[in-house]
Design a protein that fits this description.
This protein is of the alpha+beta class. It is built from 3 helices and 5 strands; from the N terminus they run ααβββββα. Strands 1-2-3-4-5 form a 5-stranded antiparallel β-sheet. A hairpin with a 2-residue loop joins strand 2 and strand 3.
Length: about 140
C-alpha cells in the first residue's frame, strides 16, 4: 500500500525498533511507496512511512531491495556530501563512506535470515542514508 511520507522530525528522530518476520507488510508498503514517488527514489526507511521499525528499501539499478535490521559494520573512504531527503524540505550536509559493509536480514521462507553485503558508490550512500533513519538520525 502506498503511504504518505512522514515529515514530523520528532517521530523521525526516534530510533527504530527491531523487526521480525511479522513486519513483512511494512516492507511491502516501503516498496509500493518507493515505486510511487514521481521521478524515483533512491531509498526509504520505514519511519518515513509511519512505522518505527528497522526496515529499509533501496534501489540498485532498476531493482528495489529490502533489508531488515540493517547495521553498517564497517566503512572506508569517508567523504562529505549534500543529500536530499523526502522527509525534509531542504538538502543537508552528511558524512558518508564510499564503501560500506552492512549486516542485515532478509525474509526467506517466512523467517528472517542473516546476510552481509558490501556496497560502493551511490548505492552505499543511499543505504547509509536509510540506515541513519533507522537510528533516528536526520541528515
Amino acid at each position: 500500500m502506498i503511504k504518505e511520507i512522514v515529515k514530523d522530525t520528532d517521530f523521525l528522530s526516534q530510533p527504530a525498533e527491531a523487526t521480525t518476520a511479522e513486519d513483512a507488510p511494512v516492507a511491502g508498503d516501503l516498496v509500493d511507496t518507493m515505486k510511487s514517488v514521481p521521478g524515483g527514489c533512491a531509498c526509504l526507511a520505514a519511519n518515513q512511512i509511519g512505522s518505527n521499525k528497522a526496515i529499509i528499501a533501496y534501489q540498485d539499478n532498476d531493482r528495489i531491495f529490502v533489508m531488515y535490521n540493517p547495521k553498517v559494520s564497517s566503512g572506508m573512504q569517508r567523504f562529505v556530501t549534500s543529500e536530499s531527503c523526502l522527509s525534509l524540505d531542504e538538502p543537508s550536509i552528511a558524512e558518508r563512506f564510499k564503501m560500506v559493509t552492512v549486516s542485515y536480514e532478509v525474509l526467506a521462507d517466512g523467517k528472517l535470515a542473516p546476510r552481509k553485503r558490501k556496497f560502493t558508490g551511490w548505492t552505499a550512500q543511499a543505504v547509509q542514508h536509510a540506515i541513519d533513519h533507522c537510528e533516528g538520525k536526520l541528515v
